[in-house]
Structure formats: structure tokens, C-alpha cells
Design goal:
Blueprint (H helix, E strand, L loop, with lengths): L3 E5 L11 E8 L2 H9 L1 H5 L2 E4 L5 E2 L4 E8 L4 E6 L3 E7 L4 H10 L18 H4 L2 E2 L2 E2 L4 E8 L5 E5 H4 L16 E11 L11 H8 L6 H15 L7 E2 L8 E3 H10 L6 E2 L4 E3 L2 H7 L10 E3 L7 E3 L5 H19 L8 E2 L1
Parallel strand pairs: 2-5, 3-5, 4-19
Antiparallel strand pairs: 1-2, 6-7, 7-12, 8-9, 10-11, 10-12, 13-18, 14-16, 15-16, 17-18
């Protein structure tokens, strides 16, 4: 396998940060990955598995080897009375995979349209949007162990999904490379249109019968109006997680902001939108020259061109500190920091 040296990662991360990898190689199948993992260069150095680079902030050059997942292919691998089982290579572009499923009337992923990144990263993050998460449609995945090359199947429980979490971000972090993911999708759609402004967007379309394609189009319209295109403005989508806080903290916020949004998790905890907190603290649209906070979505930090990863990281630190002092809530970064 061809291992390159001193490669710029600017075109391999959606922030557009011009950091370099000491070594770089791509693989398009499990045999290629297994061969790379046996190389002395790979064994001796730190590894970074890269998909679409859409949930990554590079704050320095990477003094190791970047292995880029380019495993492609989408296939219908099974079905039962209620479901289609659809398997995708980990290197497939997520949005293109969603569009493929919608075109074939495989329902369940429509609310996750236009999320950047690759399929292999979707279970790692348990990506979600507009009331749907990967765990709701996940069936299984295959992953290769980076130490011995063994391939293991992971089911739903083994993945230990949480809010933007999985076993691959905690207990088994950096131990596995996701080769493919199988989704359990629906033959009879169960539409989720109650979250956010999807219902309003669908009303604008003046439709008689709403389909999964309509829901996808509504989500695309909403995301396009609020979120910057990474091809035009460098960003990684939502930079922070929505914090889950004790109900006492939320009630204290309500004393000062009676319209503060909150979504009960249980009797003791409430999820508060991080974007609302950041906007109320005055950071929305904050321009620092080469970087800043997006003017339409406070959750999104942006690289207008030429910013370093450290500059964006420091901005996120200032936001975290400010939110802590104003609301007694400590935000957590959703983006992986390298």
C-alpha cells in the first residue's frame, strides 16, 4: 500500500484547517486496511482514522499516520415483513447514502438528510437531527481491530449508544475501524415531523400526502437556510453538545429568561439548547476576522479562511467559560480535537 509523507489535510477536514500529516494512506476494502495495519510505519506511530473529516478540529500537525476510509458500496442485504436491511461501506458519503435510501423508499433516515461526513462515522457519534438518532435505525456494523486485524460484528447493545456517544468514543476509543454499517429501515414510514420547524416547512409546501422525500426536502431547506456550506465557509456543523442539566439549574435560568427552551429528559434533568445559551450570551455572529461564530446558528464556529485550529479552539474555550459564568452550565465540545 502506498504511504505518503508530509501531506496537507486541508482538503480532508471540513474546517479547512491546513495542518499536515506526517504519513497518509487510503484504503478501499478490508484487505487494504489489514495490510496497512501490518506496516511498520503504522505500528510505530499514532493512528488517525479519517472519513469525511466533518467532526474534527486540527489544532496542530499530526505526527502519525492518517488512514482514510474509502470503502464504498450500498446494498440491500435482507428484509422482513416490516423492514429493509441496508448495508453501506464506511467510506460512503452520508448524505448520498440517505438519498439512495429515499429513492428506494427505505424509510427512517429522511430526518438525517444533509448531515456532513461519512457512513462509518455515523454510529461513532450516534448522529442525530430533528428527533431521530442513528440508534433508532441501527442494526449492526462490522469493524476491524487495529491491533490484531480481527473483524467483529457489533449489535445495538454492544455499541452502547448515548447522546452523541457510543462505545467507540469511550471504552473502545481508537481500537476499531468501522468497515460497514447495516441499517434497519422501514417499509411503512413513520414520519417524524413534530421536531423543530419541519412541520412549518412542510406547511409551506402545501402537500396533500407527505412522503419521506418531502420530509427530506424540508430538512434540507431548513439546514441550508441556517447552516453554512463547508465548501464555502469552513465549519464542522454543531460544535457543542446540547447540555443536560439538573432541573434546578434550568429553573434558575427561567427566573431570568421565562421563555428559556428546555426539553425534559426525566423528572430530574432537562436538555437545554446550547445554541440558545450561546446566543443569549451575545456570541452569535461574533466575527474575529478569520474566524468566528456563524450569524445564523450560534452552535456553529466557522473558519472564514486562513484560521488556525488553535484560534478556533481558543474561541470555543472563551464561549465555554462565558456560558459557565452566566448560566452555571459547562458546555461540552461535540467536535473531536486533535
Amino acid at each position: 500500500m502506498n504511504i505518503q509523507e508530509n501531506i496537507s489535510l486541508k482538503n480532508f477536514n471540513t474546517f479547512g484547517i491546513d495542518a499536515k500529516a506526517r504519513y497518509f494512506a487510503a484504503f478501499s476494502n478490508s484487505d487494504g486496511l489489514a495490510e496497512l495495519l501490518q506496516q511498520e510505519t503504522t505500528k510505530k506511530h499514532q493512528r488517525l482514522i479519517l472519513g469525511g473529516g466533518s467532526n474534527l478540529l486540527l489544532t496542530k500537525n499530526f505526527d502519525g499516520i492518517v488512514l482514510k476510509n474509502e470503502i464504498r458500496g450500498i446494498s440491500l442485504t435482507g428484509e422482513d415483513e416490516m423492514h429493509y436491511y441496508v448495508t453501506s461501506g464506511g467510506g460512503e458519503i452520508w448524505h448520498q447514502f440517505v438519498m439512495h435510501c429515499i429513492e428506494n423508499n427505505y424509510a427512517g433516515l429522511e430526518n438525517l438528510s444533509l448531515i456532513p461526513g461519512c457512513v462509518g462515522a455515523s454510529p461513532m457519534q450516534n448522529i442525530g437531527a430533528y428527533g431521530v438518532e442513528i440508534k433508532d435505525v441501527f442494526h449492526s456494523l462490522q469493524a476491524m481491530n487495529v491491533h490484531d486485524g480481527n473483524i467483529k460484528s457489533f449489535g445495538l447493545e454492544e455499541c452502547a449508544f448515548g447522546y452523541r456517544e457510543s462505545v467507540f468514543k469511550r471504552k473502545e476509543k481508537d481500537q476499531w475501524v468501522i468497515l460497514n454499517v447495516t441499517f434497519r429501515l422501514f417499509k411503512r414510514p413513520v414520519l417524524h415531523t413534530e421536531y423543530g420547524s419541519i412541520g412549518e416547512e412542510l406547511d409551506k409546501m402545501n402537500l396533500d400526502n407527505v412522503t419521506i422525500k418531502d420530509v427530506s426536502r424540508a430538512v434540507i431547506n431548513i439546514r441550508s437556510s441556517k447552516l453554512p456550506d463547508p465548501l464555502k465557509i469552513g465549519n464542522a456543523g454543531s460544535f457543542f453538545k446540547n447540555p443536560v442539566v439538573p432541573i434546578e439549574i434550568y429553573r434558575n435560568i427561567q427566573l431570568h429568561h421565562n421563555n428559556a427552551p428546555g426539553y425534559p429528559i426525566n423528572e430530574q434533568e432537562v436538555k437545554v439548547p446550547a445554541g440558545w445559551l450561546i446566543e443569549k450570551a451575545g456570541w452569535k455572529g461574533k466575527n474575529m476576522g478569520r474566524y468566528g461564530v456563524h450569524d445564523k446558528q450560534a452552535l456553529v464556529l466557522v473558519n472564514y479562511g486562513g484560521a488556525t485550529g488553535n484560534e478556533i479552539y481558543e474561541l470555543s474555550s472563551m464561549i465555554i467559560e462565558d456560558i459557565k459564568s452566566k448560566f452555571n452550565i459547562e458546555l461540552e465540545r461535540e467536535v473531536n480535537i486533535i
